[in-house]
């Protein structure tokens, strides 16, 4: 488990592997998926990109929990990345070129030997302060060398960021809090159900994250409402302090003011504000989010908040409870 954590530091923002062939087809419960074989001669791996684990959270589904992906006919093309989730900031050296609200996909890198037996699985949660970076920005050669060629299946899921994933208005009745975390739970559910098709063992899953991804690993480990069998180990590297009451509310309302979904100094109805924001162009919301976070990075932030479903209290209180899941855990 320690070797996994040390190796992870080196795999951000690097080149892509060229597919050598595209004749790998797996049959999931939702339909068939075509992947490809890539990597260097000594570290060939099976690669499946852009696999949907939830329906696109677009239109009327914006600001709603993820829904299970529907079945498809034919063979799904899993040989290329789909768009990253909506993000835009000056605080990253790796801005995403292709972004969309339709972004709930995951990427799988697997040792071909896993087809012969059940391999351990790593599910990695990317960092980025909950409003930038993505699941499509990693050094595939490093993933192949350090994980996927060593009888490990490496999975990187996307999750909604910024206002799209962490909107906070009222008590969450009209727009649930922590939507980005719900996305990751949906991805873990998909992994638990489908990873055996790719040669993975659903009972040997390590959840790993860096920065805000590390925070998410902590919260998912402490949440009493995440099924115990979704993962068996956790690794948090450089965890960020991005979890507290009303963390996302100030910036949510500031964006609402700027796009005329609420008026400063006047009372508002949560339902009306949410519905107004739901139908604003995504680029408009992102524009104002960037303007705010680039100026007030430490004062206006998005992130998980205590709610009545996933996390009913702050971390110290969650830690004091007796029903914390029994998992192996490494904190770096």
From TrEMBL:
Q: What Pfam families is this protein classified in?
A: COesterase
Q: Which domain of life is it from?
A: Eukaryota
Q: Which Gene3D superfamilies match?
A: alpha/beta hydrolase
Keyword Signal, does the record have it? yes
Q: Does the keyword Nucleus apply?
A: no
Where in the sequence is the signal peptide annotated?
Answer: 1-19
Domain Carboxylesterase type B: where? Answer: 24-326
Q: Which UniProt keywords apply?
A: Signal
Entries under PANTHER family matching the protein: CARBOXYLESTERASE TYPE B DOMAIN-CONTAINING PROTEIN-RELATED, PROTEIN CBG05369
What is this protein called in UniProt? Carboxylesterase type B domain-containing protein
**Species in which this protein is naturally found:** Parascaris univalens
